[in-house]
Specification:
Two copies of one chain form a homodimer. The first copy, chain A, is of the alpha/beta class. Chain A has eleven helices and eight strands. At the A-B interface, helix 3, helix 4, helix 5 and helix 7 of A face helix 3, helix 4, helix 5 and helix 7 of B.
Chain lengths: 265, 265
């Protein structure tokens, strides 16, 4: 983020985007989309975020494309946040950690997104594996979709919210680490006001910027002092500039420049 | 379940189980494990439940094994509940639905598990796709792990619990459907007492039976009238009988017979 700016460029091979790029909704179309996006973004931005669901749609051949995307992005110097939102318990949580957070795995990423419905402590195998290998985890905390507050604003036994418990747990894991811990949160750009402490001394992955309404001003208002730790994540808006590689890169660069003031660049 | 009994046989190719079966922790070992389990279980029990994490560990080649498992299980007449615990919003949730609940997909299953951290309504694309194709969804509600209650017992704005909101939402979707709706819940066998109404007029996937402590008696006590809709899910206990196919099948049959009284067989 210091070197390249804060933007995390989403790689969402959505069927409608494949169509808009003149590609077919099949494995060759997926491969062309993924490699074009990597070529456009991965030499420029700090992080790319492939959305696993769009690769899983195409079965094992789609996952093989994801493997090639991961290798190609790494070669060009971008970190990869693999958006998988996994969560499970015990040895199954460990298996997800093995799958994505161990550099020896075929699908090794720099970080994954994780879901704490089984309790944030159930994700310990992911945290421990990330710690061991210098990788990271972004845990869902507060999302912008209308159904999110049902769970995320629910009150835990200590009187706080579920989201607050997730954030506090991350802050504890990151305490004292400089410049920033490896355990981040996913917090939507358009959640409105919140009384939660978003400064977890870790990175904040913030979807919903750009086309979905999050601006530099609104992000600064919501995140306050934590704004400097934000990876604003934009997918559809920048991908709409494709399939031309230069146009994609320029769209990403514009978004990156737009959010640079947040991190004091 | 009427024809074969209630058991859902887990297929968890855990590294320690691969080792115990004399197999290597690689793709050929995974394939041998998966196909042995299918041969042992899928002609006998109502449902098998492969745990996706253990296939994802091996990357795209592991997912290709999962594809072959799905096809082989279907050929032998077992339903497949693919344990993926996916959850996302909007078009990404739709992509997961496309990936697993559409019979045309390479990874098509009969049902998946899903996680409602983004609100149970965020899973609508999964419910709608399942409705359209005659497939099903099991949503996490109450789990037995010690960290689970932090989120699942948290109080929503209407004074109920998060788990209660999930269960009510499933009951609404299943209302009036006979003999049973397609939208089930995941409820642990060892959650202890609960005041939630577990009868959602849909199937209940119940891990934690057998080695983990759930017995016919304890299940009947927790689930009451909903006991007849239970798919008790056993993995490690029956898999420990391997790699001999006949021994595995007998272990599954014993577990199946043990829980048959629950469903009035």
């Amino acid at each position: 983020m210091d070197l390249r700016g804060p933007l995390c460029a989403g790689i969402d091979p959505h069927p409608s985007l494949l169509h808009a790029w003149g590609l077919s909704d099949d494995v060759p179309g997926l491969e062309r989309f993924a490699m074009t996006a990597v070529e456009a973004f991965a030499g420029t931005v700090a992080a790319v975020k492939p959305q696993s669901a769009f690769f899983e749609r195409h079965g094992s051949a789609g996952i093989a494309v994801l493997e090639r995307l991961l290798a190609a992005a790494r070669e060009r110097g971008a970190l990869v946040v693999l958006d998988v939102k996994r969560g499970d318990i015990g040895s199954t949580a460990q298996a997800y950690a093995d799958a994505y957070l161990d550099p020896a795995a075929p699908l090794a990423a720099d970080a994954v997104t994780a879901s704490p419905f089984l309790g944030v402590g159930s994700l310990d195998p992911l945290f421990e594996t990330a710690e061991k290998h210098g990788t990271g985890v972004f845990v869902l905390a507060l999302t912008s979709n209308p159904e999110g507050p049902q769970v995320q604003h629910a009150r835990t036994s200590d009187g706080g919210t579920v989201a607050g418990a997730v954030l506090r747990s991350l802050a504890q894991r990151n305490a004292g680490v400089t410049p920033l811990g490896s355990f981040g949160a996913v917090v939507g750009a358009t959640i409105g006001e919140t009384s939660e402490d978003l400064d977890v001394n870790g990175p904040l992955l913030v979807p919903g910027v750009g086309a979905q309404g999050g601006t530099v001003d609104s992000v600064r208002r919501i995140f306050g002092s934590a704004s400097r730790h934000i990876l604003p994540s934009s997918s559809r808006e920048i991908l709409a500039a494709g399939p031309d590689v230069r146009a994609l890169r320029e769209a990403a660069q514009r978004a990156n420049d737009g959010f640079a003031p947040l991190v004091g660049r």
